[in-house]
Amino acid sequence: MPAQVFISYSSKDRTIANMLCALLEERGHRCWIAPRDIVPGTSWGEAIIDALRSSTVFVLVFSRHANESPQILREVERAVHLGLPILPFRIEDVAPERSLEYFMSVPHWFDALSPPVEDHIDKLADVVAMLIAGPKTGYIPGKPRGAKRLTWNNGLVRAIAGGAALALLLLAAWLGGLAPPASPVGWIAALLALAIPAGVAGSGRVAGWTTRGMQGALLALLLVAAGVYGWASSSYVIAGERGAPLVRGTECTPDAKLVYASECPDLPSDALADAAYDPATLWTAASIGRVKWMLGGSWALIAATASLLVAGWLGGPRPLKQED
């Protein structure tokens, strides 16, 4: 199948060019891109000329590197000579210079200067589809449907995958006895890990959670919550009957004070056995409740902050690194 879209780019912009190629081909537009589509043993110049002649649209990944490339100037000249529509996809805020400026006086410019770059590629794909289809009355650009939409280039897909992985870790911690004992927050935290990244990425407001300041604050909050939980768990979660974890309180009941006096509230292990493993007999219900709230709240905060970090790391636009 002949290529429909010729992608011209500087080798220093290969990351973005390959991403552009992948997303356009997901929309069903066969692309020609070097060096992938150059047959071994074929002359580089001959391969490019043949590709230009068989293409319908010329897409230029425009940057400061492309602006300075003699090779790209030659490709643009040949595209103009062959009458191909030229679609500059600008990834840096630079203006075309010298000879390139003459050939770049085209009606369609696509500025991909703000994240996410996927949105700009999606708009470019719409125009590519119209140019390839030709003048059709009532033409509506095709959108990927069904499973074709579920790609790693989709921030929502990445956020859901990251949230699912975090949820599995939290469930494993709950089943392994690390979560607050006898508390629904163990499985509620897993639900938070699924819902928060999906909700943040799906709302389109993920940008606020991707900044260094916000992620630094979330990481600090996560460490504080983990520290509080670790201290509370080691201090107030004790072994009950057959080793089952129980939450003790911070204040003894009047009866326990009479029996254990100065040992309250850090009672010996045999006290719990004598009380038939009923913490409420030894510690007040109010103090046990406060400890449970501390454990549950810190565990939920761990899940929430970790989920927001996942949303920022995976739900936002992917960093596109260019070579200098």
UniProtKB/TrEMBL annotation:
Pfam families: TIR_2 (PF13676). The chain crosses the membrane at residues 155-179, 185-204, 216-239, 293-314. SUPFAM superfamilies: Toll/Interleukin receptor TIR domain. InterPro entries: TIR_dom (IPR000157), Toll_tir_struct_dom_sf (IPR035897). The keyword Transmembrane helix applies. Residues 1-128 form the TIR domain. It comes from the Bacteria. The keyword Transmembrane helix applies. Keywords: Membrane, Transmembrane, Transmembrane helix. This is TIR domain-containing protein. It comes from Sphingopyxis soli.
